[in-house]
Amino acid sequence: MAERILMSLPDVTQSEEDAVVAAIRSGWIVPLGPDVDAFEAELAARVGVGHGVALSSGTAALHLGLLTLGVKPGDVVVTSTMTFAATTNAVMYTGAEPFFVDADETSGNMDPALLRQALVQLRDERATVSAIVPVDLLGKTVDYTSILAIAEEFGVPVLSDAAESLGATHRGKAAGSFGRVSAVSFNGNKVMTTSGGGMLLTDDGELAQRVRYLATQARQPVAHYEHIDVGYNYRMSNLLAALGRAQLVRLDSMLARRREMRELYKSTFADVAGAEVFGGADDAEDNAWLTSILVDRDVAGWDVTDLSAALTADDIESRPLWKPMHRQPVFAKFRGVFNGASERLFARGLTLPSGSALTAEQRARVFDSIGRFLGAH
Ligand SMILES: *Cc1c(COP(=O)(O)O)cnc(C)c1O
To answer: What domains can be seen in the chain, in order of their start residue?
Structure first.
C-alpha cells in the first residue's frame, strides 16, 4: 500500500538542510545567535513591521503578547471561538477569562457585529477587557478594517492570532501587521516551519524589548542573576532560526503550491450540488494554508463523514474544521456571544490535504479518490 497522505506536512529541501548544517558548523548551537537576529529582521521586513521576536512556538508568542499588553488575572480577553485551542490556552495562562465571539459564516472569522455586542455587554458589566484576540482562520484574515475600528472605539488593544495566515493580506496589507501585536507560528503543519517555533511581530519597539526580556528568564542586566519579574524560557534556538530563514526564501513558491491545491479543489467541486470550497468565493488574499469544503447533506445526498470515510479507505487524511472553543469540555463554562455559525461550520466542514510538499502522484491519488467518491454518489 502506498504511504498515507497527510493534510499538511513540512516542505523541506536541500537548502534547509544546508542552512542547518551551516548553523551547526558555525558553533551557534544555542538559543539566540546570528540566525535568530537575521530571521527576525527578515520576517519583520517581509510582513512590514518594525520588530520581530523569534520564540519557541506561536503559543509562546500569544502568551507573551497578552502579558505585555497588560492582561492579568481577573481581566476578560475577547477572542474567536472558531480556532485551534492554542489561542484560548494562551489566554488561560494569564489567568484572564476568555469571552468567545462567534463567526461570520462565509469566512469563519470573528463577526464584527458580534464583537461589538460582546464589548457593549462587557462594558455594561464594568468588566476589564484588556485585549481582543481575533484569529485568521485557515489563512484568511479577519475583517481588520471593521475589527480594529470597533476595538479603537472601545479602547481595547488587539493581538492578532496570525498563526495560520502568514502570506495572506487584508486590503493589500500583510497578515501579521495588524493590531498592536501579532503572533505567527512555524509549527510543522503551517505554511512555513522551523519544526516548531513562532514569532511575535509589532511596530512597538518597547513591547518587543519587553518580550525579549520575558522570553529569556527575565534577567536583569547584571552578572549575578538578579530577577524582578517571573520569566520564561521561550526563545527560538539559532539552529531553528537558520531553518526558518531558508524556508522564508521559499515561502512564495510554497504558497503558490497551496494555491494550486485550492484551485484544483475549486474545479473538482464546481459542479457538485450541495458542496463548495469554504471561503472560495473570495480567496485572492488568502494564503490557502488549508482548503476545506462545506457540504449540505440535504442537497448533496452525502455528508462530509461519507467523503472522509472514502478518503480514509484510500489512506488519505481529512479532518473536520476546528471544533468551536465554547463546545470544548475544558472551555464550555466560559461565556460569549453566539450565532450558531461556528457550530454549523464544524458540522458541515471537511479539511482536505493542502500541503505544498504533496507530489504530483500524491495529488493524483487525492483527486482520483474524490473523483471515484463523487462518481458513486
Ligand atoms: C498553530 C496555531 C497556533 C499555535 O502555534 P504553535 O506554534 O503550534 O504553538 C495558535 N493559533 C492558531 C490559530 C494556530 O493554528
So the answer is: 14-250 (3.40.640.10), 252-375 (3.90.1150.10)
